[in-house]
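pinned: reference chain
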Amino acid sequence: MYAVTFIRMVEDEYTGLLNDCNALKQANGLDLFEKPTFICERVQKFRNWLTMAIRSAEITGNGVSLKAEDVLLDAAITKKQSPPYEPLHPRIGSVLTLYERTDLDGILGEKRRLSLEQGIQKEINECRFKVCYTHCQFIKSNLRRSSQDFSSDNEPSPIT
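pinned: its structure tokens
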């Protein structure tokens, strides 16, 4: 498969994910305090699909074999050659921000992940899917808060 075809396929799948999730959001509503499992499950399925596509795709460009992760990284950080120098494939950058840092390090390697962060000007710590990101942040902050309640500072000192 050609690199352009692979990029277009990933962008099309991501657009489908956005459309599905936005339709589900409108149909079911999305309250900050309820877990949007119907959306998070779809995001996870997409991440699994993309990880498998990266591992199994045979990509060529100008008769040369290319790694899928290199094609995605290049597509994410390449900018247009005229002002305002916007990303050539902005959705690919968004796609890669669906991964958490450790997952992305496993796919790209730490050095290439850092190149990606510099290229898209975003630090990648966790999934940034816009539909459920606020909810996930809320849940994680509550988990951190509740784990602090059980920290060693709050434990009674042992009887000696």
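why pinned: The longest strand covers residues 59-61. The first helix runs from residue 3 to 28.
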